[in-house]
Automatic annotation (TrEMBL):
<dbReference type="Pfam" id="PF26168">
    <property type="entry name" value="Glyco_transf_N"/>
</dbReference>
<keyword id="KW-0808">Transferase</keyword>
<dbReference type="InterPro" id="IPR058980">
    <property type="entry name" value="Glyco_transf_N"/>
</dbReference>
<dbReference type="GO" id="GO:0016138">
    <property type="term" value="P:glycoside biosynthetic process"/>
</dbReference>
<dbReference type="InterPro" id="IPR002213">
    <property type="entry name" value="UDP_glucos_trans"/>
</dbReference>
<feature type="domain" description="Glycosyltransferase N-terminal">
    <location>
        <begin position="16"/>
        <end position="188"/>
    </location>
</feature>
<comment type="similarity">
    <text>Belongs to the UDP-glycosyltransferase family.</text>
</comment>
<dbReference type="GO" id="GO:0008194">
    <property type="term" value="F:UDP-glycosyltransferase activity"/>
</dbReference>
<dbReference type="InterPro" id="IPR035595">
    <property type="entry name" value="UDP_glycos_trans_CS"/>
</dbReference>
<keyword id="KW-0328">Glycosyltransferase</keyword>
<protein>
    <recommendedName>
        <fullName>Glycosyltransferase</fullName>
        <ecNumber>2.4.1.-</ecNumber>
    </recommendedName>
</protein>
<dbReference type="Pfam" id="PF00201">
    <property type="entry name" value="UDPGT"/>
</dbReference>
Amino acid sequence: MLPCSIKNKITEEYSLSIQLIELHLPSLPELPPHYHTTKGLPTHLMSTLKNAYEMASPSFADILKNLNPDLVIYDFNQPWAPAIASSLKIPSVQFLTCGAVMTSFALHMFKHRGEEFPFPAIYYPDFQIQKMRQSHVNDGKDKDRLIEAVERSCNIIFLKTFRKIEGKYIDYLSVLIGKKIVPVGPLVQELVEEDEHTEIIQWLDKKDESSSVFVSFGSEYFLSKEELEEVARGLELSKINFIWVVRFPVGERIRVEEALPEGFVERVKDRGLVVEGWAPQARILRHSSTGGFVSHCGWSSVMESMTFGVPIIALPMHLDQPLNAKLVEEVGVGVEVMRRNNGRLEREEIAQAIRKVVVEKNGEDVRTKARELSEEIRMKGEQDIDGVAEELIQLVGTARSNSNFN
């Protein structure tokens, strides 16, 4: 299934060189077609979706036979793809869309059970560990999927990151798996001017420079009633302008006004904009009025924030996000919101972190570091992608030579 969001991300410049081919997932009673994507997927269905991917592998094999490509690039959810490619004498490379921090941490725990991760700044708080144990997200197969996927990659692995922030974790990951890790850069999509959502940008245009925060928790996590309450109260207490994207699982019909504290939207109407569903995140982050990002610390959001020089107010929820938040603090471009020992959010802590990052003097170092890192990323330009291209050319050339020799 190809969500419209994927098609819309292909700019006109590349529309002729990219061909999208649908991989149809099997029809399952618990996974109707509108759930054939992680976007808007209820958390408890994640393992079902991964199983559906695996059930679609015969269809994937047919696609490869028809296309006969030079190379297959696959991600964590398709650990079966390289075996199919190998049977057709097609080289394959894994592309990890999470960071080196998360990947090295996970593989360390799998390979060296009981040993401390060698970088003490990176860890899961106790409440997050307990939450993962109770969660349906880790279905017991993720360990096997990750190990299988990295082991089957042809000599190298591509990673969505850059050495400036994850150099030591990239090197440790390479030691763990015995393969070369090639960082591809942050891969922030080129901004496309669009007519939709102009009211959001116009709202920002009226605000002072670096005076507003963007609040979003990604498309794969949905705040509980209690979390919505504390985030709303925290934004209200902060006295800072904000744009808040509120999402609900696909199929749930909930009015935003009913989900938020009574009277909240009316009380903050002069400095707060609540948007349901989706907002142009990259355009908002690059806007001069945006001075902070209240983020779940999904890896793509972290990459975008660093690229555009926006400091992060970290509110990680699950999966790799707690580790990404620790990295954000280690790099110095953000502040994690303090929680109670049981993980409960507190409005006062949210407000305090927002004010520190956006306006207070003790947050100046964070704001400066975010600007400096953004400038370094901009100066580096396309160097990482050039390196990726060279690796791919060499890999495909070697595969062809071996094929001709055999």
